[in-house]
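Dear support,

Our group has been running a series of protein-ligand predictions, and this particular one with DAU is the one our PI (initials K.S.) wants archived with full inputs and outputs. We had some confusion internally about which version of the output was final, so please treat the block below as the authoritative record. The input we submitted was:
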Amino acid sequence: MILVTGGAGFIGANFVLDWLARSDEPVLNLDKLTYAGNLENLAPLQGDARHVFVQGDIGDAPLLERLLAQHRPRAVVNFAAESHVDRSIHGPEDFIQTNVVGTMRLLQGVRAYWQTLPESERADFRFLHVSTDEVYGSLSPTDPAFTENNKLEPNSPYSASKAASDHLVRAWLHTYGLPVLTTNCSNNYGPLHFPEKLIPLIIVNALAGKPLPVYGDGLQVRDWLYVKDHCSAIRRVLAAGRVGEIYNVGGWNEKPNIEIVKTICSLLDELRPRSDGGSYQTQITYVQDRPGHDRRYAIDASKIERELGWKPAETFATGIRKTVQWYLENQAWVTHVQSGAYREWVQTNYADR
Ligand code: NAD
Ligand code: DAU
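Confirmed final output from the archive:
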């Protein structure tokens, strides 16, 4: 089996669902269930013996020791993190605890377990760390896209904590020989995205008749990748990535934020026209900028394409349409997340486990 951490969050849940749709190799899913962890995301796996869910912290060393000894995974995929930049600006503490201290404890626990494995299993073992393009800092409009050789120049408490975790992962290879892999991916979007992040927030606010907040001048650029394509890249790196290597993952989809917001408005105008006949674009509201806001991210994904033959399946046009449709068809999920009822869903559906 494989151990997935943070598998009840946005990308982790998509990864677990896709993994078990493609293979019968079981998943041990360790997630603390912070505000961002939602077991409702994993509802299709209820009663499926291939999915073992444990509520717990990657920083809980005794728990890790017990779980690793009991389940003996052949690989770890580490999604667990505090992930929202705005939250990190208001309260960096949790980011340091989970992303830095938690990653270090996870590495330590996994290393101790890995050292007990027979030689052949030790050689085949993998620790895949899921990281972000934000560790590379911010680009000017004319800079080339980030490659794996860019310096780490993080600018927010979130990206600084992720850069620290990337360094720890590298150090556990060089010092202890743990067979690690790191992926640095651009902005994801798609089903199960918590509506505090730009794309789901705009969809949900638009449908609720609320303002659509655009930070600053709205001309910051992000490089968007459909979440299922990120999941396929992680599967590919896990299967064939070279130990110790970093793989940048991205969809060559650079877009200014205001264009993203207007695209969502146009799709909603088509798929769920407003009752007053007006465009959702009239709800766009420019608001105060994010402190230290990175101007541009762009990922050069040529290494993973060249070495591992990975390519995204979705264009931005196809991915964003699927995403808007998913939110239109899953209003109950949105309501549960917004009301906090998703936490009760755990009680109701998992109370006897
Ligand atoms: P998310 O916030 O939606 O989910 C994070 C999950 O981790 C939640 O289920 C949460 O409960 C869990 N978690 C948090 N602290 C934990 C702890 N101490 N122990 C165990 N579980 C814990 O995040 P996401 O957007 O799915 O991102 C997943 C990973 O991918 C993160 O490491 C993030 O840095 C990285 N990443 C995200 C993006 C993106 O666009 N969302 C892009 C590139 C990389
Ligand atoms: O680049 C990868 C990163 O992408 C991940 O590592 C992070 O975990 C993930 O949260 C995301 O970070 P961003 O800060 O880029 O995502 P967010 O959705 O918060 O914001 C996207 C852009 O939209 C950013 O320039 C800020 C802007 N924005 C965001 C919100 C929430 C707005 O203009 N208005 C908003 O209300």
